[in-house]
From TrEMBL:
Residues 17-44 are annotated as: Disordered. Residues 17-27 have a biased composition (Basic and acidic residues). InterPro entries: NDUFAF4 (IPR009622). This is NADH dehydrogenase [ubiquinone] 1 alpha subcomplex assembly factor 4. Binds calmodulin. Interacts with NDUFAF3. It comes from the Eukaryota. GO terms for cellular component: mitochondrion. The lineage of its organism: Eukaryota, Metazoa, Chordata, Craniata, Vertebrata. GO terms for biological process: mitochondrial respiratory chain complex I assembly. It holds the Pfam family UPF0240.
Length: 172
């Protein structure tokens, strides 16, 4: 509905509005800069002759110029004392999980992979007498305080199944 109303106003008296715009006096263009009139000077034969003429004096001076370039001597950098010492991290092989190719193969000492973390938490949960914090720290090359924090604050999920309530079906 709104489109019909706007179309009526848009097409109202179109021809007379177009004639009024066409009959308006055109504005005069701005004057051009004199450098824009190069085509007028190019028509003159003296200018063309000056452009095409060779200057012998400048040509002889150009022939006398001789340029010789030399590269600066190449200096080889001595890498003796400039390198910073690189800390070599000790790596250990991980206890591989069931993911095969997706498992992490090597881990830095003092760190564990996710599979190992879940395994050690699960082992400690089911057998806390065997898998003590000291044994876990020795097994996975961890610090004892980190293992104690890990065992205290991270608990693996437990799945509990509740027995279904048995009710007699309502017979209709």
């Amino acid at each position: 509905m709104g489109g019909r109303v706007t179309r009526v106003f848009r097409t109202f008296n179109v021809e007379s509005r177009a004639r009024r715009e066409i009959s308006k006096e055109k504005p005069t263009p701005a004057p051009r800069h004199r450098t824009a009139r190069l085509d007028a000077t190019a028509d003159q034969p003296e200018v063309k002759e000056e452009i095409l003429r060779k200057d012998d004096r400048l040509l002889t001076l150009l022939k006398d110029v001789y340029v010789e370039s030399r590269d600066p001597p190449v200096r080889v950098k001595d890498g003796g004392g400039e390198r910073l010492p690189c800390k070599q991290e000790e790596k250990r092989l991980t206890k591989l999980g069931h993911l095969g190719a997706l498992d992490v193969k090597k881990v830095s000492k003092g760190k564990i992979s996710i599979v190992e973390a879940l395994t050690l938490l699960n082992n400690h949960k089911f057998h806390p007498q065997i898998w003590t914090a000291e044994k876990i720290a020795a097994e996975y090359s961890l610090e004892l305080k980190d293992v104690n924090s890990l065992l205290e604050f991270f608990i693996p999920f437990t799945v509990q199944e509740f027995p279904k309530e048995t009710k007699k079906a309502i017979k209709s």
